[in-house]
């Protein structure tokens, strides 16, 4: 019997051993990744982005410790398609559930949801050696095959609906909608605080792998309830009620929760090896401040799709940076996978770009061409190419120079006919590459 060392020289064995050690160390040194998404927040709802009537000190601090984006966008102006964009890293309209604007608990919508047929950021991260967890809002399907656990997450605590009562935890169908993994659970507490506490507990537990944690808060999405408020009656509309003071209380709970999560990273000595990304899923509504941007949630005007976003990675990203780089939801997927060394599925190429070279200063700002489409509820289309934005809504077509006119007040389609025609044609070409809309 031959010994392996008879066939391989000692020098080769040493090289193989060193390579194995390097590879093992490289894998073990990969950072933890926390992705935090708020829900229905207006562009200027953080005091660091312009809100005046209340303060968000913890989120402002987090933004100041890294790079702050002022031209970040949601993949859509509504919850379900944006979450589809993040989970798949692709335009929402490439996946059937991403055509739901948004997914509801009605019988008609029940067949739609994310399934393992479409690789998710969680399944790709898990295949890449990460522990995965989702705490918060899912809103990507109600059937067993649509569960976060069936789509790459090792652990889930949260709701399946688009909204839930913050006190009773009843969802869209007015049934209990709080789950731990695939099991319905009954917990007392304000929903935002429960999510923060679960995220903290997850961070504190022992990890044999680097972790990817998505914390998808429902705050400040309606129903508008602060800590200590009463639950809504089952017959009450979730969109009723609220006040600026209640909204401020909801934002305070969100801000406090993020602050506690950041403190936990410090206490567990994980800050230096954890990248934190914060953003939002679409524009705000009744009590939001959209910072002078036109319109709000559910529209493709800037107030419906431009969102706050920032990234902290101590030692990799310098503090106090503000970037004009245009970014979109799918970019966070591409960035997370790149940081982790995880690979996208070749049959499902990503639509986002890795933003880390821009965040670290290794790459200059690049012009982007991004697309949005709404069909259910209203009929709107938009493309941003560099500084130019073509927009179609129910009243007409427009062309805006967003560098000079972020409030979209000055329609330039008559003055810039060539740009208008070019962007309109680009959108038509892109539209042919995505799925046909699903009518209501």
Task: Describe the overall structure.
- The chain is of the alpha/beta class and 440 residues long.
- It contains eleven helices and 14 strands.
- It has helices at residues 4-7, 10-28, 57-64, 79-88, 121-127, 191-204, 244-267, 302-305, 329-340, 356-359, 417-431; strands spanning 32-38, 67-73, 131-137, 155-159, 178-180, 183-184, 211-216, 274-280, 306-312, 321-328, 369-374, 380-385, 388-393, 396-401.
Describe, in short, the structure shown.
With 440 residues, this protein is an alpha/beta fold. The protein folds into 2 domains: 31-366, Alkaline Phosphatase, subunit A (3-Layer(aba) Sandwich), CATH 3.40.720.10; 371-431, Arylsulfatase, C-terminal domain, CATH 3.30.1120.
Distance between the termini: 72 Å
Fourth CATH level, the homologous superfamily of the largest domain:
Alkaline Phosphatase, subunit A
Largest β-sheet summary: 10 strands, mixed
Question: In terms of per-residue confidence, which ranges show pLDDT below 50 for 5 or more consecutive residues?
Answer: 1-8, 13-27
């Amino acid at each position: 019997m031959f010994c392996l060392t008879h066939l391989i020289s000692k020098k080769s064995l040493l090289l193989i051993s060193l390579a194995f050690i390097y590879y093992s160390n490289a894998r073990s040194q990969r950072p933890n990744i926390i992705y935090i998404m708020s829900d229905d927040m207006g562009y200027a709802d953080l005091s660091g982005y312009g809100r005046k009537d209340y303060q968000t000190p913890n989120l402002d601090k987090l933004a100041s410790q890294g790079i702050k984006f002022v031209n970040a966008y949601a993949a859509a102006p509504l919850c379900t398609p944006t979450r589809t964009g993040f989970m798949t890293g692709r335009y929402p309209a490439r996946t059937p559930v991403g055509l739901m604007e948004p997914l509801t608990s009605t019988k008609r919508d029940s067949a739609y949801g994310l399934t393992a047929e479409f690789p998710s950021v969680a399944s790709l991260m898990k295949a890449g050696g990460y522990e995965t967890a989702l705490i918060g809002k899912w809103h990507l399907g109600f059937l067993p095959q649509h569960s976060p656990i069936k789509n790459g997450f090792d652990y889930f605590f949260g709701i399946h609906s688009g909204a839930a009562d913050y006190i009773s935890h009843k969802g869209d169908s007015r049934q209990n909608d709080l789950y731990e993994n695939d099991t319905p659970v009954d917990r007392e507490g304000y929903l935002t605080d429960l999510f923060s506490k679960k995220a903290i507990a997850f961070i504190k537990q022992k990890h044999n792998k680097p972790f990817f944690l998505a914390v998808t808060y429902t705050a400040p999405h309606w129903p508008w309830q602060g800590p200590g408020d009463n639950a809504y009656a089952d017959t009450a509309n979730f969109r009723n009620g609220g006040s600026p003071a209640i909204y401020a209380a909801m934002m305070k709970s969100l801000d406090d929760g993020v602050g506690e999560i950041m403190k936990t990273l410090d206490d567990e000595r994980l800050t230096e090896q954890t990248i934190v990304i914060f953003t939002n899923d679409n524009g705000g509504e009744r009590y939001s401040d959209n910072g002078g941007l036109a319109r709000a949630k559910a529209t493709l005007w800037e107030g419906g799709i431009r969102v706050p976003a920032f990234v902290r990675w101590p030692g990799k990203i310098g503090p106090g940076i503000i970037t004009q780089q245009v970014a979109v939801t799918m970019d966070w997927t591409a960035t997370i996978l790149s940081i982790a060394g995880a690979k996208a599925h070749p049959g499902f190429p990503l639509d986002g770009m890795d933003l880390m070279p821009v965040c670290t200063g290794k790459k200059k700002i690049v012009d982007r061409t991004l697309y949005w489409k709404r069909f259910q509820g209203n009929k709107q289309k938009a493309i941003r190419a560099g500084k130019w934005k073509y927009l179609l809504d129910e009243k007409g077509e427009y062309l805006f120079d967003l560098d000079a006119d972020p409030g979209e007040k000055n329609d330039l389609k008559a003055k810039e006919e060539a740009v208008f025609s070019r962007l309109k044609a680009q959108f038509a070409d892109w539209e042919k590459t995505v799925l046909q809309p699903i009518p209501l």
